[in-house]
Design goal:
The longest helix is centred in the middle third of the chain and has 6 residues, at 58-63. The protein has 2 helices and 11 strands. A 6-stranded mixed β-barrel has the order 2-3-9-4-8-6. Strands 1-11-10 form a 3-stranded antiparallel β-sheet, with no helix packed on it. The chain has helices spanning 58-63, 134-137; strands spanning 3-7, 14-21, 43-47, 54-56, 70-75, 80-100, 103-112, 117-121, 130-132, 141-145, 149-153. Helices cover 6% and strands 49% of the residues. It is mainly β and 155 residues long.
Length: 155
């Protein structure tokens, strides 16, 4: 099971993720002169046990060419508001230490979470690019350790 460990950043568990459209809109069928290219962008995600669903910031939706799928209601301490929603795939970057010729090297892998998830667009901030909510966290294991560390284990 892939495992991400890290130090809380200003009291927040932040992980590195990648995002893609959950169910791309089909394009016109025809011959292609070059294979399609896939651009994987890295983003900072907050693991938020207080969020029911996963959320993305506007720049993530734009850079990943996410297609709006409708509005979704979200409630906070002030009231209920409707947010643009997207169907997304989320991948989490994991780092493992491996021995190569008696030296430790860091091997980095991207693990895609198996199912597409609905994500709501939220207002931009300077701490993170998206929120991983309980819709994803509850399918895996998140624990907080002494000394301000956390561990996120993917099932």
């Amino acid at each position: 099971m892939p495992q991400i460990t890290g130090q809380l950043f200003e009291g927040k568990p932040i992980v590195s993720v990648a995002v893609s459209e959950g169910a791309p809109i089909p394009s016109a069928v025809g011959p292609q002169h070059q294979p399609p290219s896939f651009h994987i962008r890295e983003y900072r995600a907050l693991l938020d046990t207080g969020a029911d669903i996963t959320c993305v910031l506007p720049h993530v939706a734009k850079e990943c060419f996410l297609v709006p799928r409708g509005l979704i209601p979200m409630t906070n301490g002030v009231g209920t508001y409707h947010h643009v929603s997207y169907l997304i795939n989320v991948g989490v970057f994991c780092e493992n230490s491996v021995y190569v010729n008696d030296e430790i090297e860091v091997e980095r892998s991207l693990y895609w979470i198996p199912e597409a998830n609905i994500a709501a667009e939220i207002k931009a901030n300077s701490w993170f690019d998206m929120i991983i909510g309980m819709d994803i966290i509850s399918q895996h294991e998140l624990s907080f350790l002494k000394g301000g560390q956390f561990r996120f284990t993917l099932s």
